[in-house]
Design goal:
38% strand, homotrimer
Chain lengths: 101, 101, 101
């Protein structure tokens, strides 16, 4: 069992914005990244100012999506750089992890 | 593209307990943390003793929730300390990550 | 508040394959791991070659599942070694994190 370094990435989006299809097509067709999974949150909010109501129920009109993927650190670096140019994603969080191959 | 250190946090809750609204209100109104997302799991179980039946289907009556957020390390430390005092959360997992600003 | 080192693990599966019940039973009954949560993704794709169509809608026929858990690093190492022998999971990603006890 050999350990391999990867970078885990979570990209935070919102259903109301049209970025997801574009992002998935890029990851699938162009970057050919492995291990992409999309999760839908049940509620959420972004940086201050985005939610003006204190009623939590109002957040559900624009459900958060997370696109998660991992790949070799140097590939992920390149993908993130590319994504920032193409899609202008604001919330891309990443950290080092390992997989066994 | 400038890298910024953040701490990722995942707080594990259960629908049957009333902590989620309280936690979200704290994160939204008081701590003004950025990037909060809530996910509902389809099944799960806690530390040993919580599930007495071996039937996996029984777990679905109390679905797990994960409240995920990230912010600057020093802010997250303060938030976690505050959460432990206010809400007595038992499962708060956190790790260092990066975002590009 | 005492910090404890844990290893976070995310195991990527597909609904179409029968591994999830086996994995959960192992984690619950044999390894008695704490903090297991299962999430269902809304779409996703694996390593190159698994999805032959470029139509994103086709991916939804086999929804991705993620089984997430954490425990002490030495226990997780043992569990991952065991899982690789028993279930032959291909995508097990893990990284160091902390909890407060």
């Amino acid at each position: 069992m050999k350990q391999t370094e990867v970078t885990m990435v979570r990209v935070y989006l919102h259903e109301a914005r049209a970025h997801m299809e574009e992002l998935l097509e890029y990851l699938h067709d162009d970057s050919k990244v492995r291990g992409v999974t999309v999760f839908r949150g049940i509620t959420g909010f972004g940086s201050s100012g985005e939610i003006h109501s204190s009623k939590l129920i109002d957040m559900s009109l624009d459900l958060p999506l997370v696109v998660e993927f991992f790949d070799a650190p140097e590939r992920v670096e390149e993908i993130i750089r590319e994504l920032n140019t193409k899609i202008k994603l604001r919330h891309v969080v990443y950290w080092p992890a390992k997989i066994n191959l």
